[in-house]
Amino acid sequence: MSIQEQIKEVVTTHRVVLFMKGTKQFPQCGFSARAVQILQAAGCEDFVTVNVLENDEVRQGIKEYANWPTIPQLYVNGEFIGGSDIMMEMFEAGELAEVLKA
């Protein structure tokens, strides 16, 4: 199975997936920490995280999968939502909670 197929399987198997540096319990970059805090503030506790630092193929592959150069990356219901800046804008506008409820 190719790395792209593996990534697709993860984002389509789980409702909310955050590709990040580190884990939910121990983020290893400020943007990833902020992404976790935003999801929790939006009332989402049941999200899955993928630590891209554990696998270089995943780290590169996720950038190609979404055609998005940075990490973290949020997926909801198999759809790419954005990185921490977009998450923050959506959270402040009340849009993130709506996407997470859908």
TrEMBL record:
Residues spanning the membrane:
none
Task: Specify which residues bind [2Fe-2S] cluster according to the UniProt entry for this protein.
Answer: C29
The record's InterPro entries line, in alphabetical order, gives: Glutaredoxin, GRX_PICOT-like, Monothiol_GRX, Monothiol_GRX-rel, Thioredoxin-like_sf
Q: Where is the Glutaredoxin domain?
A: 16-81
In this record, what's one Pfam family? Answer: Glutaredoxin
Mention one GO molecular function.
Answer: metal ion binding
* Keywords recorded for this protein, A-Z: 2Fe-2S, Iron, Iron-sulfur, Metal-binding, Redox-active center
Q: Which CDD domains match?
A: GRX_PICOT_like
Family note? Belongs to the glutaredoxin family. Monothiol subfamily.
* UniProt protein name: Glutaredoxin
